[in-house]
Amino acid sequence: MLQSNVKPAEGKLGILVVGCGAVSTTFMTGVLMARKGLAKPVGSMTQYDKIRVGKGSDKKYLSYSEIVPLADLKDIVFGTWDVYPQNAYQAAMYAEVLKEKDINPVREELEKIVPMKAAFDKNYAKRLDGDNVKDCATRWDMVEALRQDIREFKAANHCARIVVIWSASTEIYVPYNEQYHGSLAQLEAAMKANDREHVAPSMCYAYAALMEGAPFIMGAPNTTVDIPAMWELAEKTKLPICGKDFKTGQTLVKSGFAPIFSTRCLGVNGWFSTNILGNRDGLVLDEPANFHTKEVSKLSTLETILKAEEQPDLYGDIYHKVRINYYPPRNDNKESWDNIDIFGWMEYPMQIKINFLCRDSILAAPLLLDLCLLSDLAARAGKFGIQRFLSFFLKSPMHDFTKGEQAVNNLYQQYTMLKNAIREMGGYEADEEID
């Protein structure tokens, strides 16, 4: 065993969530219930998974908290921003993800979580009409107001550390533009010039978080921390960043199922994915400009698993289509269908159909917990910049595209990266190669 230099998880951990909707309130309610022993945090790797450390007679399987010092659930304090002023209890009831009997035991705690005014631009989410919004003249004013929020929350709640996580709606697509996103100086200049086209509100949250010493997690497919300007800021502030887009339903299946074909050397002609969803996320994604952001994220998964350049006979001509349809009757109970056209020996065709009836927020909530606890851990371990080991939880993992790097989307390779990072931070040797 090697020496571990991770600082202990002492004091309160403030988790500031951007967005107080279905996913956020399911996450917060679940944590509050779990620490009272009234619910189980099923789906959370940090709470349930065990990792092998050592080999041979020294082999043992330990939970994450036995390997590294994770923040305890009882030390978490929640805060949030949202365009709607309803407190977390009201928002949880409105979302109708959880039953009232699973919310009421922590009603008093949820009622105290009142959203701060959001840094919001309606052009980025036209379907939202909330009025709990900051009155900021420029993007730079947004940054300053958010920094003040973080400072005040940290002081008022006596937090030792803060993590900021985006769990709000998907913004319209912002293409990477080197002139504005290529360096920190360029991004800051665009913020001060109030460039609303190239600076999304989410970028203001990320900038403010990093400047206030808080790791930032992007849980939507927005262009936010996946730009060189933010990588430079993360290096400057020595803080972890990760993203993007929580990997919950269809893409989780895709990242776990596609490796079957590459491992077995079976060919793929086409993969058609469609979804129906009725919550606020579905409403926002019903706007074509917002859907395009999600589409880019979901389409990126297959090409890094089924590599056309390595196996042109098998994956050289895949037709990949993704659709999301807003369907209010389903609310948070998303349904996805995947039709996969494959071929085998002598190119004879076959088909696979997958129908996943999932609960979007139920799958997302444990991801928020794990990403927050592991980002806090990474910060205490002195890790900064892109946290590739957190790719396991994300749909479109960050990578340095300026150097030709490809994201790792294979679920099993991602799991190896996760386990090895935990081992190394805990003072154990990494012992599984990523091919």
From TrEMBL:
Residues 249-361 form the Myo-inositol-1-phosphate synthase GAPDH-like domain. Keywords: Membrane, Transmembrane, Transmembrane helix. It holds the Pfam family Inos-1-P_synth. SUPFAM superfamilies: Glyceraldehyde-3-phosphate dehydrogenase-like, C-terminal domain (SSF55347), NAD(P)-binding Rossmann-fold domains (SSF51735). InterPro entries: Myo-inos-1-P_Synthase, Myo-inos-1-P_Synthase_GAPDH, NAD(P)-bd_dom_sf. The chain crosses the membrane at residues 13-34. It comes from the Bacteria. Belongs to the myo-inositol 1-phosphate synthase family. This is Inositol-3-phosphate synthase.
